Sequence to fold (51 residues):
Amino acid sequence: MKNFFHLYHQTSTQLGRELEKSEVTFLKWMYERYTVEEISRRKLSEKRILR
Fold:
């Protein structure tokens, strides 16, 4: 995922309509979770390399 705007645009394009407020809220939550997990994964990977 490049960024939230990209995710938003891609989703609304695939649906062929603007997203509803609840859908935007869900996408924000999903993007935040993805970001947190990606950072954790990278930190774990760096720790393994440093060992």
Observations:
- Residues 45 and 51 are 10 Å apart (CA to CA).
- The two ends are 29 Å apart (CA to CA).
- The mean pLDDT is 92.
- Helices lie at 4-15, 21-50.
